[in-house]
Fold this sequence. Notes:
Layout: H1 4-21, H2 23-26, E1 32-37, E2 40-47, E3 50-57, E4 61-63, E5 73-79, E6 84-91, E7 101-106, E8 109-116, E9 119-122, H3 128-137, E10 140-146, E11 152-158, H4 162-172
Amino acid sequence: MTNARTLGLAVALLLGATTIAGAQQQQTKAPTPLQTFERWATYTYNNAGAKVCYAATQPTDTQPQGVNRDPVFMFITNRPKEGVKHEVSVITGYPYKEGSKTTVKIGDATFSMYTKDQGAWVDNAAEESRFINAMKAGSDMVITGTSRRGTVTTDTYSLKGVSAALKRIDGECQ
Length: 174
């Protein structure tokens, strides 16, 4: 991510595309930027009358280089109306291999995420709080996944600012 403004524009465009596709059902409005904390930016939006807040970042490094991918993002989302707090997800920029899992390394901790299309989510919701705690304590996170074509990718994310970003979305979406 070159700067928070680029991230904000990319996230807005990404969510805007999703919004257009589901406008008749979702009634989602474009996200409003809240604040940026080092590598993490925070946003809020209204989804059919329900407030949603999230923190987002992009990888600091992606391997292999030169692979054709859409933008890559990691999100941590709060949807209070649905009782969702700190839902971790990734948009990888390519369709995952069907039935594949991603591996996430944060320091000594390892997590698994299930995949569907271009997204990945923590395998076990009960693990999300351990995942979030590892993110808060860590300095970087490495996610490895396999595309539908069999290409193995490795994305490295900085965790600088994630604790402050989570505090911001928690305060905004209660």
